Amino acid sequence: DPTNQEDRWDCIQAFFQSVNQETDGPQVALSLLAHKIQSPQEKEALQALTVLEACMNNCGKRFRGEAAKFRFLNELIKVLSPKYSGTLNYE
């Protein structure tokens, strides 16, 4: 929630516990996180990165393995490189 003034660790913990319980939890979680990380709202993107870090530390091999796939990594590249988001600027 971009209106949060600080990280809600109770919600973050509930999120990564859900990821661990669901069969397709890592795939669904990373899809949601990739979308939020690309948010134009800085606060929302930073919160998504905090959740990603918590998941990397608490969700185990399945989550980390899914995060290491090109599908997710390409979404992160879009944040870092304007070339991949379609905003090339040749000056």
Please outline the helices and strands.
Blueprint: H1 9-21, H2 25-37, H3 42-58, H4 60-67, H5 70-80
Helix pairs in contact: 1-2, 1-3, 2-3, 2-4, 2-5, 3-4
Characterization of the model:
The protein is an all-alpha fold. About 70% of the residues lie in helices and about 0% in strands. This is VHS domain-containing protein. InterPro entries: ENTH_VHS, GGA1-3, VHS_dom. One of its GO terms (molecular function) is small GTPase binding. Pfam families: VHS.
Q: How many H/I helical runs?
A: 5
Topology as a string of helices (H) and strands (E): HHHHH
- Shape summary: flat
- Named CATH architecture: Alpha Horseshoe
The CATH class is identified as Mainly Alpha
**Strand-pairing-aware structural class:** mainly alpha
Helical coverage, percent range? 55-70%
Unreliable residue runs = none
For the record, give the distance between the C-alpha atoms at the N and C termini, rounded to a whole number: 37 Å
Topology, number of strands: 0
Q: What fraction strand?
A: under 5%
Tell me the radius of gyration.
Answer: 14 Å
CATH topology: Serine Threonine Protein Phosphatase 5, Tetratricopeptide repeat
Whole-number count of domains: 1
- Average pLDDT confidence is 85
Give a short account of the largest sheet.
none
Protein name: VHS domain-containing protein
GO molecular function, one term: small GTPase binding
InterPro entries: ENTH_VHS, GGA1-3, VHS_dom
Pfam family, one: VHS
